[in-house]
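User: My collaborator sent over this chain with a note saying "see what the structure looks like." That's all I know about it. Can you take a look?
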Amino acid sequence: MKKAKKQLEITFLGTGTSQGIPMIASKDPVCLSDDVKDKRLRSSILISWDDVSYVIDCGPDFRQQMIREDVQLVNGVLFTHEHADHTAGLDDLRPYCYKIGEMPIYLNARTLKSLEQRFEYIFSKENRYPGAPSVEPTIVDKDPFFINDVTIIPLEVMHGRLPVTSYRIQDFAYLTDVKFVVEEEKKKLQNLDVLVVNALRIEEHPTHFNLQEALDFVAELKPKRTYFTHISHKLGFHEEVSNNLPENVFLAFDGLKITV
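Assistant: Without extra context I'll predict from the sequence alone. Here is the result:
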């Protein structure tokens, strides 16, 4: 008997690229914009169903995002890759660890090795600093796994030459830092209700989809709805870009909440 689908509540914690918007020391018009939708923290989402909540990535703005959204509990973290804009908030898991104990984290072997080196005091088994967060790693490869009765399907996408883990959760998929997806992985992205994917800027980029590449990807997969994320100031003003997108394709913005 097929399990009933859970209703997923998605909160976009951040929709910016690695430097965020406004970027430090920039006088670009988008960085000077008064539109709140042009102010983007580093990319991350919160996914909630039943009485659990998980985040995909916890970057350097994680603390600020959790306070802004008044998130009282996080039950685990799914990491896409090791870059700082997706992992630098690892230490800020501490308050949630105090509530639940060891924090489950899901990540590929390469990302775990990187975090073990950069956050040695978190992963150390000896003479641990008593205030350090405690984490329980689960290595993710290409095999589906379960979290609280929901199937998680990992995908491997290419961020330039770097493999990045993306995730399909029921009929929702979150892909960030994507430049290329092989056909075998695209098969896992059929019949989506919602696709979230990066659209960095107008000009081409060596390791990210630009706007046209993201639009072409959407046209190929044909999800019911798409939200672009991991956006730099070089994409343009939120309102202007939004007004020129196809039907059912949207720019995500910080604080946006959707139901899948």
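A starting point for your reply to your collaborator: Helices lie at 62-68, 84-87, 94-100, 109-118, 120-123, 183-186, 211-221, 238-242.
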